[in-house]
Amino acid sequence: MTADPTLITGVGKRAGFHVARAFLQRGMPVIGTYRTWYPRMEELEQFGADLYHCDFDRQDEVDLLIGDIKARHERLRGIIHNASQWLRDDDGVPFGEVIERMMRIHANVPYQLNHELAPLLQACRDAHADIIHIGDYVSSRGSKKHIAYAASKAAQDNMTLSFAAKLAPKVKVNSLAPALIKFNEHDDPGYRQKAVAKSLMQREGGWDELQHAIDYLFASQYVTGRVLPLIHSRRCIRDLIDEKSPGEQRRWHDRHWSSWRWRARCVPVSRMPG
């Protein structure tokens, strides 16, 4: 019996390509979306991936994608929302367009896909189906230069909580919040050196780290509504409290550290103040 397929958005390069290939190499069927065709994607086709061109900025293409998936498939094993765009606030694009595009690709389209394809997930033949939002650690700390991007990723995290409640118990919904996973090929040596210096492990994570986290969530029979950080930075907790006085830091610790929300979103990599 053929396994139910997993929809992975943004399979053209980087994380989406590597996750899709890892699934296919294990014999797990993949439906993939892409905005730009890259020659490497021929490898995914050779493994049997069902690939769709879909520009998430165009609602008509999103509607066609949803309609075609519903027409051709009765069930889905999961949805991995990987498609992303990283616009700076000062890229020369009008601010209104920046926030609209960031919210559309990271929140609007995943929202539509989760609602429209929920019946296919509920019909999954496995014990559970999964929705995984590939977020970003910046959603919990903000960004001076990527405010719209960070806000849209925070919206994605919040949707994780809501869809987890709505679709339980059959469908588990979680987010992954990576920081330094994989450098871009064009990143200059100076930037790489500074980024690695902030890491306790003194290295980038690599695609395998992301894949291990996805595998864990797919295998779990219990975890849902979680935002799991993939980070080993010295600054995880301190980014949230570095502006506070010692007394305020102690009160922050007493008030928040016992909370499951903070434990779920932050990895303690250094001792708390006091």
Structural features, described:
With 274 residues, this protein is α/β, with parallel strands linked by helices. It has a single domain, classed as NAD(P)-binding Rossmann-like Domain (Rossmann fold, 3-Layer(aba) Sandwich). Helix content is 45%, strand content 12%. Strands 3-2-1-4-5-6-7 form a seven-stranded parallel beta sheet, sandwiched between helices.
List keywords for this structure.
single chain, 274 residues, alpha/beta, Rossmann fold, globular, disordered C terminus
Give a topology summary.
Elements: E1 6-8, H1 14-25, E2 30-34, H2 41-46, E3 50-53, H3 59-72, E4 78-81, H4 95-122, E5 129-134, H5 147-167, E6 171-178, H6 189-197, H7 207-219, E7 227-230, H8 238-241, H9 246-256, H10 260-265
Parallel strand pairs: 1-2, 1-4, 2-3, 4-5, 5-6, 6-7
Helix pairs in contact: 3-4, 4-5
Number of domains: 1
Highest CATH level, the class: Alpha Beta
Q: How many β-strand stretches?
A: 7
CATH architecture grouping: 3-Layer(aba) Sandwich
| Biggest β-sheet strands, sense, barrel | 7 strands, parallel
Outline of this structure?
The protein is an alpha/beta fold and 274 residues long.
